[in-house]
Amino acid sequence: MLRDITIGQYYPAESVLHKLDPRTKLMATLLYMVSLFVFRGAPGFAVVTAALCLVIWLSKVPFGYMVKGLKAIVVILLITAVFNLFLTPGEAIFTFWKLKITYEGLQNAGFMVIRLIYLILGSSILTLTTTPNQLTDGLEKSMKPLNKIHVPVHEIAMMMSIALRFIPILIEETDKIMKAQLARGADFESGNLLKKAKSMVPLLVPLFISAFRRANDLAMAMEARCYHGGEGRTKMKPLKYRRLDGTAYIIVFVYFAIVIWIRIA
Amino acid sequence: MSIILDKVNYVYSEKTAYQIQALKDISLKIEDGEFIGVIGHTGSGKSTLIQHLNGLMRATSGGIYYQGQDIYDQDFSRHKLRGKVGLVFQYPEHQLFETTIFADVCFGPKNQGFCKKDAELKAFTALRSVGLPEDYWYRSPFELSGGQKRRVAIAGVLAMEPEVLILDEPTAGLDPKGRDEILDQVAKLHQERQLTVILVSHSMEDVAKYVERLIVMNQGSVLFDGTPKEVFSHYQKLESVGLAAPQVTYLMHDLRKHGMQVQGTATTLEEAKHSILQAFAEKGKPIC
Amino acid sequence: MKFIEARKLIHEYIRRDEEGNVESILTALDEVDLDVKQGEFVAILGHNGSGKSTLAKHLNVLLRPGGGTLWVDGKDAEDADNLWAIRQNAGMVFQNPDNQIIASVVEEDVAFGPENIGVPTDEIWKRVEKSLKSVGMIQYREHSPNKLSGGQKQRVAIAGVMAMEPKCIILDEPTAMLDPNGRREVLEAVERLNKEKGVTIILITHYMEEVICADRVYVMDNGKVVMQGTPRGIFSQVDTLKDYRLDVPQITLLAYELRKEGLQIPEGILTRQELVEAICRLY
Questions:
Q1: Is CATH 3.40.50.300 the classification given to domain B1-76+163-176+195-233?
Q2: CB A232 within 8 A of CB A11
Q3: Domain boundaries, chain A
Q4: How many CB pairs under 8 A join A and C?
Q5: Is it the case that residue B157 has pLDDT exceeding 90?
Q6: Residue A185 main-chain phi, psi, to 5 deg
Q7: pTM
Q8: Of C49, C279, C283, the CB nearest to B145
Q9: Nearest-CA distance B279 → chain C (Å)
């Protein structure tokens, strides 16, 4: 069911990672992503794997819960694997009609899939250990310089955090609408593409109407609670770097340096 | 001719940390033409139960038989079953989508494969039977009041001409008059067409007034199953699971404690009134 | 001291066609007079569409009066300078608990109001703790609102308003979407705030059982205030209430029916206890 998607869902726990400043985690995630595309060879692979394992262990989020999030991207993984498998030139190990699987292809496919899995796991640790509000706070503060060139940073951050709060609600609602229409004999599966697209109308119309109503209600509730933009706002949890963050930055930079060093050496 | 549930179990998120058993060994028989109330807390399994009856949810184990046929059988069409066992969900906003009310009510019969003319005929009959005035029919369903939306939602399911009508809290959020109107209409459908009706409700007063058989759900199991009188006589047990009997039942028990010869089993206002008046009459006391 | 004073308050929803000509006018409030004293518990009853929600939205200046005068906490609601002061002192809780919780963690949501009015960080923490305690939700402070029950969500919404330290809370059908347990939780929280913290409560509802503990009740129909008085006084007029698409609690109705049959039961019975005593006295 749609409800099983866990990417981006905060998982409350008491861990070192939960305590880190979101800016630190944003930076670390960014560097980890870069490192995934920089690393080379078995030693590099060992380092990125070790780093991921360490972070997963530190996060105290159950591994099974994390892996469930991967289900959503299985299709992308398969496509990537197939493309790499068949389209990499090199020494053939298996030929079937015009298609051939090469040794290099096998290697590339393997690495690509692993990269993607690590990428998703790595970034989901960010969202699993950081509340959406902290995350947007982190982004808001990191992007603050953009305010000078009239980018409405606060508004964008607020929109993001509201979107994150309402995604699970709207997913649940989609589920309910789907059931209500199925009970009236609707069919969302069979037929050609056009028929399928048409069958989405009874699902999308109630969903949009409900989303607009929610938006309207929410705007009113925010106004009633004296919301009037970012000006003069204080914070319950203002972002403050702590010693822990300093340590984390050092570890992250050392890690990145090692990956680069392995690549160059 | 009935719906039979045989040891139905349903488990959410099986084999994970979030595993919840929503239904535990439910065995029930629902006869044709019954008017059944289902009560229980949020999370007692009542919503899960009704979604099994029309095949929207699939039991983790156990069997469900509609008119003697196994609904999980390979050859059995669950799509057709949904036309026979009509389910109206709590929020009409979740199903209304067409530009006019009439077109919206046609949606069900069209999905069943009826031609435009037949579908319209069925929609016509359905809208008539829920008592929505004809000058509304070609308006947008989104302009209606809460009570009217409910009617259109019910008509949308009735148009499929189901043999069983299941209503999930059809009165939530309605004002008292709107609530009475909807329930009276449902009771009328039950009487005039011998429709089997299953009413999920939070209001003890409502179920006591309308239904013939009451099923109380608690933590995924059937706690009580019987006439409202039988069920409400266990009012202490009901309270221990956070439910309650209608106010008048408590009143009658209080009166008995004070030595008054009234029926302890009264569950509706009418019964309570008669019983109290009778007690006065038997004592030979002039009531004026 | 008077907290709210409305005189001949009018509000019209005007619908225009594409050229801007007036198509129809719906008078949602028709010369409404309302007086609420500091610390009072006032209930406003009415069927769906009677104008009670429109009235509520005026008290928090989400809507501006189309005519008449409205004073909230000694401030003129028509003066734009008073807007934020009024909103802070007359907090509002809405019907759908999901559509008024902004943050993804309970305590961060409660902090939203104080953050908007610029309360310093240390003070926000104190207020969040205090208001979550006052509605009995402190143990859920780090939870996600999505995992809470309807009654719990609504209590979080009330805490969010309490954190702004208002003098008055307006609740616009706060229980309409809740089950009986959720309804009880919310009402108990509201009553406690009124009794223990002296917060003025304006409860808008169509559930008759909920107004029994109010000090005064207003009944609205068609944008007008058609009845007002104590719950007892209002509930003794069963027939009039039925005309306004409302009804009375089952016990009150039984008492009324028995009276009609000739039993000498006093008018306006509210609780089971009262009815038992009245019947036994006659028996």
A1: yes
A2: no
A3: 1-130+240-265, 132-233
A4: 103
A5: yes
A6: 85, 10
A7: 0.84
A8: C49
A9: 9
